[in-house]
Every structure is written in C-alpha cells, then in structure tokens.
Known about the structure:
A hairpin with a 2-residue loop joins strand 4 (about 65) and strand 5. It is globular and about 35 Å long. It has helices at about 20-30, 45-50, 70-80, 95-105, 115-129, and strands at about 10-15, 35-40, 55-65, 65, 70, 85-90, 110. The strands form 2 sheets. Strands 2-1-3-6-7 form a 5-stranded parallel sheet, sandwiched between helices. The two termini are about 20 Å apart. The model has no long low-confidence stretch (mean pLDDT about 90). The chain has about 130 residues and is an alpha/beta fold.
Amino acid sequence: MSIESEPRRTETLLIVDDDEALTELVQRMVEREGYNTLVAHNVKTAIELFEANREVIDLVVTDLVMSGEEGRALAFELMRSRPGVRILVSTGLHSDAVQELLDAGVKGVVFKPYQSATLLAKIREAIET
C-alpha cells in the first residue's frame, strides 16, 4: 500500500516537548497525515491540556527529558489520571527509565533522532495497541 492510498487519520495527539522547533516539525508532520494536535512545551501545560481534553486525546507523545522537568513523571501522572491512556515516549536516551515506563504501560518508545516514517509508524502502532 503506498502512502497516497493510506487512510487519513482523525485521532487527536497531545505532543509534549520543550524543544519548540521540534514540536512544530512533529506537529506539521502528523497534521499532514490528518491527525488533530494539541501542543505543550512543559509538563504543567501538558497536564492542563490533557485534563481539558481527556475524552478526545487518543495518544500522548512526550519527550522523556525536558529542561527542568521530566516526561517520566508526566507519563505516570497521566496514567494515574486516566488508566489506559496511550503514551508514546520520545527520547535520545537509552536508560532504565525507558524500560520502567514500558513495564508500567507506556505503548512505545521512539528514539531520537528519528525519520518521519519511523515516528508515524510508532504513533500508529501505539494507537492500535
């Protein structure tokens, strides 16, 4: 199946990363595929957006390490707040925290730097599991 024949996506993603340029790039990439997006550049905003939109968010894509904040703590808070929430962690680190999150129920990890096709495949996989 070619990319052109892929169905347009309609799910809503919450993208969380303190790197605004990367967040903007990811947002454009996933919106081209048809995904709806909400964007946060810190944990506090991410939690506020999640709480305000909890019924429509299909997947949270969060960076593991953000300046002064921790994506790990965000993931655990969201899983506590809404058991079964789908979370995809984005990171450049291979650490024990990654395995801890996977064991706790995070749906996947995408390692930076990644290609757009890799990210989109990981997003689809996380949504469908």
